[in-house]
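4.2 Preliminary Data

To establish feasibility before requesting continued support, the project team ran the inverse folding procedure on a target of 253 residues. The structure was first converted into the token representation described in Section 3, and no sequence information of any kind was made available to the design step. The complete token record follows.
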């Protein structure tokens, strides 16, 4: 079901004490403040169990930042969908551009991971987006189309409805440069229309599409107010409760 979501991707930040402190701040924040969106966090994998414990009584979704395309076995360093399911995780980020850039992840890998996640009842947050070069050469719509088709279009209508998509232009990640609300809206509408063409409008309208790339307290409201933008996947600004909470509050009237 389409919902408004603010998801924090902590990436490779915070030692265990700092992670615990930020989680406790978020536990307190969510106890004291009602919000008009779902709140999800993706801490480093090492802290997922701690997150499950600390948020046991809060409605905060707990996500891994990646998961394996393999089911189980001799894959050193990997975390499986089944492991995530077994600790009660909500889901996993899949295909983040940093995984693509530094670990050679492709949309075919994403497709395999998404299927495994769905089989285990996990919510995949599938990330896509173009590089600066691709945008400058006017290929952004085509790139995102290709990514979306390869990663998602082998899914059934029932399956794709359970996927959350995060459009993250690579040139806006951690750079302080944000896509304008209009640029982001253009791609979000494009993704939704691709899904509508393939699966029908009803299915497309059920899918939450998040924007990621230098979302901050001072630009969140304008970005989230676009008709096809259902929230954000937040990096740097998810690392401080003051910033993250203000972004959550961008959904308040
Ligand atoms: O996963 C989050 C995105 O990569 C955005 O990161 P950022 O908010 O630091 O630009």
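Position-by-position output of the design step:
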């Amino acid at each position: 079901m389409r919902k408004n979501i603010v998801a924090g991707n902590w990436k490779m930040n915070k030692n265990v004490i700092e992670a615990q402190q930020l989680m406790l701040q978020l536990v307190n924040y969510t106890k004291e403040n009602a919000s008009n969106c779902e709140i999800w966090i993706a801490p480093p994998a090492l802290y997922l169990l701690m997150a499950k414990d600390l948020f046991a009584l809060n409605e905060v979704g707990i996500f891994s930042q990646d998961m394996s395309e393999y089911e189980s076995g001799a894959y050193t360093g990997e975390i499986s969908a089944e492991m995530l399911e077994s600790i009660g995780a909500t889901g996993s980020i899949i295909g983040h551009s940093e995984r693509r850039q530094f670990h050679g992840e492709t949309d075919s890998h994403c497709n395999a991971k998404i299927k495994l996640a769905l089989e285990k009842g996990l919510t995949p947050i599938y990330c896509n987006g173009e590089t600066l070069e691709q945008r400058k050469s006017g290929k952004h719509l085509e790139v995102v189309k290709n990514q979306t088709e390869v990663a998602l279009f082998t899914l059934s209508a029932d399956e794709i409805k359970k996927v959350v998509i995060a459009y993250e232009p690579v040139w806006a990640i951690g750079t302080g440069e944000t896509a304008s609300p209009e640029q982001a809206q253009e791609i979000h509408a494009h993704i939704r229309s691709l899904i509508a063409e393939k699966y029908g409008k009803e299915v497309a309208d059920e899918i939450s599409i998040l924007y990621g790339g230098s979302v901050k307290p001072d630009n969140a409201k304008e970005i989230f107010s676009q008709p096809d933008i259902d929230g954000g996947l937040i990096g740097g600004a998810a690392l401080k409760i003051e910033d993250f909470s203000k972004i959550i509050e961008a959904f308040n009237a």
